[in-house]
Give the backbone structure.
Amino acid sequence: MLAKRSLNWFSRLRAKTIAMVSMAIAVCFLAVSCAGGGGEAAGGSSTTVAAAGIAPDVVADYIHTVMAADRTAYTKHVINRLKKLEGKDKPDGVLDVEATESWQQNDGIPLPAQMFRLGSEIASDGSPFTYSLISEWNINDNQGIKTDFEKTAVDAINSTGEPYKEYQEVGGKKYFSALYPDKAVAEACVTCHNTHPIHLERYPDKVFEMGDVMGGIMINIPLE
Ligand code: HEC
């Protein structure tokens, strides 16, 4: 009986000692790894920069640059080479192809705004990141003003001619949104829109002139 009890006591002591020793080892380990970690952190400052990320307004600027460049390249190097643009002959055209709004029905190719929309529909499908063309004088119903935020943004670019950037919350989710003005940079922008049957019917008093803001490119970046 006594022998059994003292054995118990001994094994408890042994367990305590083992626990203390292993704790001491763990502390040493921690100290060593912390010292090593300190050295690594100094050398790995790039990790800290990557974790900080790129400001959303800079991301929006980059995305907009790519979109605007693609649209200009399509207009300059594809549309400009065609012999016809929406029923009108182009004297400098070399290809017997027409760019027309009804490209699907009439064996043509899409207009730049349609090409842009087709791309945005693919990119935005099932994604919280979206971008689109929007205007107060929209030809396409889907490209009108739909929210208070869009109204504020469109009013801002119409009056300043500068991009409008702001945070907004949609359905409990935070976004950084930027609207970049889309200006009449070519005579074709003005003539085509001013003479479009939908434009004439909806906005008979709105006559675009060169340099006018015709609408904008809205980019919505989800922040979560
Ligand atoms: C040959 C005709 C034509 C030309 C040229 C043209 N557009 Fe458009 N634009 C359209 C049509 C048609 C739409 C609607 C397309 C769609 O269904 O998405 C449109 C859409 C737009 C929209 C979106 C709002 C809306 O009306 O639905 C903006 C903004 C726009 N165009 C600006 C421009 C600018 C700026 C230029 C010149 C760089 C230009 N357009 C050149 C025919 C034209």
